[in-house]
Amino acid sequence: MPIGTPSGPAPTHSAEGQSTYGGALAVVTILFFMWGFLTCLNDILVPHLKPIFDLNYRQVMLIQFAFFGAYFLFSIPSAKIIDWIGYQRSMVVGLLTMGLGAFLFVPAAAVPSYPFFLMALIVLAAGITCLQVAANPYVTILGKPETASSRLNLTQAFNSLGTFLAPFFGSLFILSAAPKTLAEIRALSPAALQAYRLQEAATVKLPYVGLGIALLLLAIVIGGFKLPTIEHAQHHPGEKVNDSIWNHPNLIFGAVAIFVYVGAEVSIGSFLVNYFSQPEIGGLTAKAAANLVAFYWGGAMVGRFIGSGMLQKVKTGHLLGICAICAASLVAISMLTTGHFAMWSIILVGLFNSIMFPSIFTLGVAELGPLTGDGSGIMIMAIVGGALIPLSQGAIADRIGIHHAFFLPVICYLYILFFALSGSKPNSQRRA
Question: What is the pTM of this model?
Answer without folding.
Answer: 0.75
